[in-house]
Amino acid sequence: MTDTIEAVFDTVAATAGDVRTVLSSRRSYEAAENPSGEQQLAADVYADEQLEDELLALAEVGSYASEERESVSTDTGAYHVACDPLDGSSNLKSNNSMGTIVGIYDEPLPAPGDALVAAGYVLYGPITTMVTAVDESVTEYLIEDGEREVLSEDVQLPDDPVVYGFGGRVPDWPTEFGAYVDDIEDERLKLRYGGAMVADVNQVVTYGGLFGYPMLADRPNGKLRLQFEGQPMAYIIETAGGASSDGTESLLDKTPDGLHSRTPVFVGNESLIAGLESKL
Ligand code: AFP
């Protein structure tokens, strides 16, 4: 299993090198929308096609699914990879951070959280980095020329949280959630929100804190997809000593109703998630 997982991460790192190179020429919108009704950028389509081709070429990868395609692409193999090829791609226009999210499952997709065997993300920031969670350990890498070089091993969330960031319009947040935000402001946490889950979660990994995209007045399940965003990021945060929740239970205890189903997402320090669950 370890060889396959490392081969998937190597492939994602190599693809990230390609994606970074072509971003400047793929900033325009395509005519098509993704299955969640969001407009696709040329870069979304490029990253998705690259990942599908390269990951399905691995002998043990039996299927590939992504936010950018309606159904699962199948092959033969024991592992099933779910990707958000370019998370936060609307940040491409404003030249802010974006990422790639990958979850490796040992059950066909859509799969429950407890079928995850590893997860990782790439962050396209001022430099390109990758964070992986496998074998109960989180590692941060620098990616240069498509190759991974270890920056930090056994990454854990810092004990004293510093930052928080929540998506959605404030008037659309449930009242109890707004009250919780007042509480964490009183604890002197600092608001930082960039609109790309990978970047907003990576600052939680770096400084400690909380990221969330809550349920909204007109979207009871929030915006983020459980299979492609919620579960892989929950797996990484929980492996790094943090916690995840949909407001009542860990995202890793959930099973998606469908490939593209959405869920409220909260990930961060255990104490903050416990406080949030008691408030909601
Ligand atoms: P895009 O990929 O459409 O930019 O959406 C990014 C995202 O799925 C996730 O990465 C962010 O946390 C969240 O949506 C941002 O949503 P808002 O634009 O509503 O803040």
From TrEMBL:
<keyword id="KW-0460">Magnesium</keyword>
<dbReference type="GO" id="GO:0005737">
    <property type="term" value="C:cytoplasm"/>
</dbReference>
<dbReference type="InterPro" id="IPR033391">
    <property type="entry name" value="FBPase_N"/>
</dbReference>
<keyword id="KW-0963">Cytoplasm</keyword>
<keyword id="KW-0479">Metal-binding</keyword>
<feature type="binding site">
    <location>
        <position position="229"/>
    </location>
    <ligand>
        <name>Mg(2+) 2</name>
    </ligand>
</feature>
<feature type="binding site">
    <location>
        <position position="223"/>
    </location>
    <ligand>
        <name>substrate</name>
    </ligand>
</feature>
<feature type="binding site">
    <location>
        <position position="86"/>
    </location>
    <ligand>
        <name>Mg(2+) 1</name>
    </ligand>
</feature>
<feature type="binding site">
    <location>
        <position position="193"/>
    </location>
    <ligand>
        <name>substrate</name>
    </ligand>
</feature>
<dbReference type="InterPro" id="IPR000146">
    <property type="entry name" value="FBPase_class-1"/>
</dbReference>
<keyword id="KW-0378">Hydrolase</keyword>
<protein>
    <recommendedName>
        <fullName>Fructose-1,6-bisphosphatase class 1</fullName>
        <ecNumber>3.1.3.11</ecNumber>
    </recommendedName>
</protein>
<feature type="domain" description="Fructose-1-6-bisphosphatase class I N-terminal">
    <location>
        <begin position="30"/>
        <end position="144"/>
    </location>
</feature>
<comment type="pathway">
    <text>Carbohydrate biosynthesis.</text>
</comment>
<dbReference type="InterPro" id="IPR028343">
    <property type="entry name" value="FBPtase"/>
</dbReference>
<dbReference type="GO" id="GO:0042132">
    <property type="term" value="F:fructose 1,6-bisphosphate 1-phosphatase activity"/>
</dbReference>
<feature type="binding site">
    <location>
        <position position="87"/>
    </location>
    <ligand>
        <name>Mg(2+) 2</name>
    </ligand>
</feature>
<dbReference type="GO" id="GO:0000287">
    <property type="term" value="F:magnesium ion binding"/>
</dbReference>
<dbReference type="GO" id="GO:0006094">
    <property type="term" value="P:gluconeogenesis"/>
</dbReference>
<comment type="subunit">
    <text>Homotetramer.</text>
</comment>
<feature type="binding site">
    <location>
        <position position="84"/>
    </location>
    <ligand>
        <name>Mg(2+) 2</name>
    </ligand>
</feature>
<dbReference type="InterPro" id="IPR044015">
    <property type="entry name" value="FBPase_C_dom"/>
</dbReference>
<feature type="binding site">
    <location>
        <begin position="87"/>
        <end position="90"/>
    </location>
    <ligand>
        <name>substrate</name>
    </ligand>
</feature>
<comment type="similarity">
    <text>Belongs to the FBPase class 1 family.</text>
</comment>
<dbReference type="Pfam" id="PF00316">
    <property type="entry name" value="FBPase"/>
</dbReference>
<feature type="domain" description="Fructose-1-6-bisphosphatase class 1 C-terminal">
    <location>
        <begin position="158"/>
        <end position="277"/>
    </location>
</feature>
<keyword id="KW-0119">Carbohydrate metabolism</keyword>
<dbReference type="Pfam" id="PF18913">
    <property type="entry name" value="FBPase_C"/>
</dbReference>
<feature type="binding site">
    <location>
        <position position="84"/>
    </location>
    <ligand>
        <name>Mg(2+) 1</name>
    </ligand>
</feature>
<feature type="binding site">
    <location>
        <position position="67"/>
    </location>
    <ligand>
        <name>Mg(2+) 1</name>
    </ligand>
</feature>
